[in-house]
Design goal:
Oligomer: single chain
Number of strands: 14
Number of helices: 10
Distance between the termini: 16 Å
Family: Belongs to the HAD-like hydrolase superfamily. Cof family.
Strand content: 15-25%
Pfam family, one: Hydrolase_3
Keywords: Hydrolase, Magnesium, Metal-binding
InterPro entries: Cof, HAD-like_sf, HAD-SF_hydro_IIB, HAD_sf
Protein name: HMP-PP phosphatase
């Protein structure tokens, strides 16, 4: 029997309208009742995800900012990772030939340099709002990640520019088709989950995980059973061809897979 279940949120647990469906919520609460360590692993900020889980009546473990922060169910931080100050300074002060807009994550919130109505609309219902600031005036320490949002083709060019400039000083990852993240080296949802497993004394082989984007790759690849969403980025399916591909988030495919297991408690993992 698995002891921990980790879920990406956007494109996986959440439906396209960014709500948790009734069947999914029911499955999560049944997992909690069976003392499974329900874990939300997301690129979203801790402050926002804490609001979401509180509103849903759930008390999960949180891996947020794509693995840069890990919190226990009481809201206590058990792991953190930041960009080196010199790297953060260069990311925010260099002139990048791009229309993509940078967004900064710090413990005190989400900051950006100009209005971002589309991004703000995605998070407003969770009472989480960006702070408009001059990003070049921010202190370089305490920045967990920088996310560039824009057209995918634009981000692909930026990815090459960032890689040419920083080399192995940062990790770059597409958390969505329109989001390119600059992360501390060696920090991702997989390393976040590994820190959590060590904290809980759980073998990763006794975990399962669900995801849809490249920022889920390390997490899906390290657990006993990883599932890729039917709506996942093609790059994720290609990078982990041995994993099962299930239904889409708009079908609440995670709930369907979990309910199979919940009805068959002798199964180690949900059936294919």
């Amino acid at each position: 029997m698995f002891r921990l279940a980790a879920f990406d949120m956007d494109g996986t647990l959440l439906m396209p309208d960014h709500r948790v469906g009734a069947e999914t919520l029911d499955a999560l609460k049944q997992l909690e009742a069976r003392r499974v360590a329900v874990t939300f692993a997301t690129g979203r900020h801790y402050l926002e995800v804490a609001n979401i889980t509180r509103r849903l009546g759930l008390q999960g473990y949180l891996i947020t900012g794509n693995g840069t922060r890990v919190h226990n169910r009481a809201g206590e931080q058990i792991f953190s990772s930041d960009l080196p100050p010199d790297v953060a300074h260069e990311v925010l002060h260099m002139h990048w030939d791009t229309l993509a807009q940078p967004h900064v994550f710090r413990d005190d919130g989400w900051l950006t340099g100009s209005a971002a109505p589309r991004e703000q609309a995605l998070h407003a219902e969770n009472d989480f709002h960006c702070q408009l600031v001059n990003l070049r005036t921010l202190p370089a320490y305490g920045i967990s990640k920088v996310c560039f949002c824009g057209e995918h083709e634009e981000l692909q060019v930026l990815q090459a520019d960032l890689l040419a400039h920083f080399g192995s000083q940062v990790d770059l990852c597409f958390s969505a088709y329109d989001s390119l993240e600059v992360l501390p080296v060696g920090t991702n949802k997989g390393t976040g989950l590994r820190h959590l497993c060590e904290h809980l004394e759980i073998d990763p082989a006794d975990c399962m995980a669900f995801g849809d984007a490249m920022n889920d790759r390390e997490m899906l690849g390290m657990v006993g059973k990883g599932y890729i969403m039917g709506n996942a980025l093609p790059q994720l399916k290609q990078s982990l061809p041995h994993l099962d591909v299930i239904g889409r988030c708009d079908q609440q495919a995670v709930a369907d897979r979990l309910h199979h297991w919940l009805r068959s408690p002798n199964l180690t993992f949900p059936p294919n």
